[in-house]
Design brief:
six-stranded mixed beta sheet; 6 helices; 18% helix; 2 domains; Immunoglobulin-like; single chain
């Protein structure tokens, strides 16, 4: 019997060790000694903050030790597009928000754009690729932000949103710095390369770019919805109190603290396909943070090209979004339509081209696989 107990204990340890850490921002803040006062911008009169559209200039630093970590331009473009959908309530998952929370959906009004000039004013893709001798970086350290430690130094963090994409150890998906927590050279967002952008061929439940959405929420001063448990102190009255993080893809309703939980909020821990919204208060907090703590981002004019010009310039289909038909106007040997779960819905074979009837598809996000290319489209 003692042997059996020991076996169960050993199994339990391994389960805990192997569990994915959805977000390490809290651990990072604890490590650097940040004080969680939750008071930044809370004195702002949210009613005076207009819902304008703001352009956020982004530079993506890709640190790679081997080619598998050197993710493609398309993966980066898909991440920017996903952010623009999520921060403007244009993501298809909005259609799945329960009626109870429809009135709480917030539109942030942020448009993320890869910068088009380097620090010397030369044309630039916004993607900074740097080889590193470091095989992996600790899950919530700052080494990836320092060139003398195998990383890459930040661009001016007052005027650029720096995102470091690298191999993170310790099952960590990503982490972010919140306003005022660190010195300027360390400010920004870090994402593991496996979870940056959209990759439907990756079987992880975190393959739709929502790690970046979540971490950039922290970067613009959002706490986890479960931050203080049932005491309901995440800075927003329209996020119901939640005692602990939610994992997986739970059905509605889930209850916690004697209320229905907003498990689909981007600041919870659910799978990517089951996240879908920021609230109006969360949107206001982020706009307040931008206008006050991170106003230098607004004054940066180096971001002039929309992601659509990059991401869809080589596309081989239109329109997007589409309702009844999708037009594939180039010749490919093999074309597939894949749903968000990675299941093949339909296909075109042997150099066929023309119209794909999608009228029977449910509304949502799908992927068009054209030989070695994978592009996202939305059925409305």
């Amino acid at each position: 019997m003692r042997i059996l107990y020991a076996l169960f204990f050993f199994i339990g340890i391994n389960i805990c060790i192997s569990q994915t850490n959805r977000c390490s921002t809290d651990e990072y803040r604890a490590q650097i000694g940040a004080v969680k006062t939750n008071k930044i911008n809370l004195d702002i009169d949210f009613n005076l903050i207009n819902i304008n559209e703001y352009t956020i200039p982004v530079v993506v630093h890709i640190l790679y030790n081997d080619e598998s970590q050197n993710i493609s331009d398309d993966r980066v473009y898909s991440q920017i597009e996903s952010l623009n959908n999520d921060f403007n309530a244009l993501n298809s998952e909005i259609n799945n928000i329960p009626d109870q929370f429809l009135g709480d959906i917030g539109q942030v009004g942020f448009n993320f754009c890869l910068v088009q000039q380097d620090l010397n004013g030369n044309p630039f893709s916004g993607i900074n690729r740097v080889y590193t001798d470091v095989e992996s970086f600790q899950g919530f350290s700052d080494n990836m932000k320092k060139s003398n430690e195998g990383g890459v130094d930040a661009w001016d963090t007052q005027t650029y949103l720096n995102i470091w994409v690298c191999n993170l150890s310790g099952n960590t998906l990503g982490f972010a710095t919140m306003p005022g927590d660190v010195s300027d050279e360390l400010d920004g967002v870090v994402i593991d390369y496996l979870y940056f952008g959209i990759d439907i061929l990756f079987t992880s439940p975190y393959n739709l770019g929502r790690t970046a959405t979540h971490e950039i929420g922290h970067y613009f001063n959002l706490e986890h919805t479960f931050y203080a448990g049932c005491s309901d102190w995440d800075g927003c009255d329209d996020t119901p109190p939640t005692s602990s993080p939610t994992y997986g893809c739970p059905t509605y309703p889930q209850t916690s603290c004697m209320a229905n939980s907003m498990t689909m909020n981007f600041m919870d821990y659910t799978d990517d396909q089951c996240m879908g919204m920021f609230t109006q208060c969360q949107a206001q907090r982020m706009r307040s943070c931008l206008l006050n703590s991170r106003s230098g981002l607004i004054n940066n004019s180096s971001c002039t090209t929309s992601i659509e010009e990059n991401y869809f310039s080589s596309s081989s289909f239109y329109p997007n979004p589409a309702s009844n038909f999708l037009n594939v106007y180039e010749s490919y040997a093999y074309v597939e339509i894949i749903d968000i779960m990675g299941r093949k819905i339909t296909e075109l074979k042997a150099n066929q081209k023309g119209r794909v009837n999608i009228s029977k598809l449910n509304s949502g996000t799908y992927f068009l696989k054209l030989q070695n290319k994978t592009k996202q489209f939305i059925k409305i």
